[in-house]
Amino acid sequence: MKKNIRTGSVLFLCLCMLFVLQPVAMGFAKMIPGDFTNLAKKAKPAVVNISTVKTIRGGGRVFRHFFDQQPRGNQDFFRDFMGPFLRQMPMDDYEQKSLGSGFIISSDGYIVTNNHVVKDADEIKVKLYNEKEYDAEIIGKDPKTDLALIKIDADNLYFLKLGNSKKLEVGAWVVAIGSPFGLEQTVTAGIVSAKGRVIGQGPYDDFIQTDASINPGNSGGPLLDLDGEVVGINTAIIRSGQGIGFAIPSDLAHPIINQLKNSGEVSRGWLGVLMQNITKEIADYYNIEPGKGVLVVEVFEGHPADKAGIKPGDIIIEINKEEINSARDLSKAIAGLGAGKKVEAVILRKGRRLDKKIKLAKRSEMEPGRSLLKTGFDSFGFRFEEINPAVADRYGIPKDETGLVVTGIERGSRAAKTPIGQGDILKEINRAAISTIKDYTRALKGIKKGRIVQMLFVKRTGSLYVVTIKK
Hints:
Thrombin, subunit H; Pdz3 Domain; 4 domains; six-stranded antiparallel barrel; six-stranded antiparallel β-barrel
């Protein structure tokens, strides 16, 4: 009798556990796709292989390799001895070939890829899934986001739809299709590892990180959700890492692609403010929640924010009904809108909530110069500050010294390739004296793009050095 009771109890307990665990097991089963066959079949006809040819003018690889590989002790002798002959010797051009990926976004042949895939290409070939090959032309490029739009002369093509990357959640399944190492129509799958990654690629970094296998050649290919919509454009990898790839979110890419298609270039909006994130101290001072909004430190006279009545000390909390939680959020929100667009901003001023309408101006290369010089790096990679008692004490500079002090050098920039360092002083640009940020901005505005800029520095050793750099 006791044995039957014990057996019945165990059976009842097992049944209870089955009822409890079954929904959990079913939930996990739903989370893991059976396979990606249907998705791959539908998407692959819209994914293309892109091959480019770039002509490198003068100095073939073989000769340069011989020249560069001379033993260190022999280099000066070799240059001195061979120099006169080398200057008279014709240097052969050679062709540099590269491979990448892309995807069709319209039936009439518009294709999205990365700027670095087609940059400086003399010839672009696009191969479809059915082995048909076409010549492609560049419609427009945007180096700041590493996006490019190209076109082939074809009709009735299968194309992919750009999805909503904002709805994409960390842990969601994604599929990458492309031509890693030239292996066309390769499908890999993984999950979204993180969002909003800043990896130092450019001013608008906001990458989706994924563990879907991405390799050289995947650049420009689509990252798809399980509905077959493009949520990202595969762009970058960490060569020293494994299982880490980065994609440009579709929400960032969409307005850029539209501008490239309509005008062949990207016009970014300009607000005209110097801003900073809300620290705990600022939040306590203004009695607001930390990490919410952006503090306006300075408003540039005559610029859009000034015309709209924005003042220093205002806190911008919304742009077009989208929450703003950092200076990066604000930069992206404004830059994604073209010049002339009107935006609705919500600000806090002394605790009062105010609505402001702002008509954006065009963001030229030098318009944001002052804010870049004060809070970040200029287009060359220098960060400057005007000389004041604090800066003079920090770098051991006489307080009556004139010029701009170098307070930072951006890693990997053109400035980083010069011998200029922190504490060096910029004295002149193209023989014009420089004492203030306004002097610097005015001097660079007077130099056309592509022209040479000569910057005279006094190094901390007291020696003069001229940096020659192209604008």
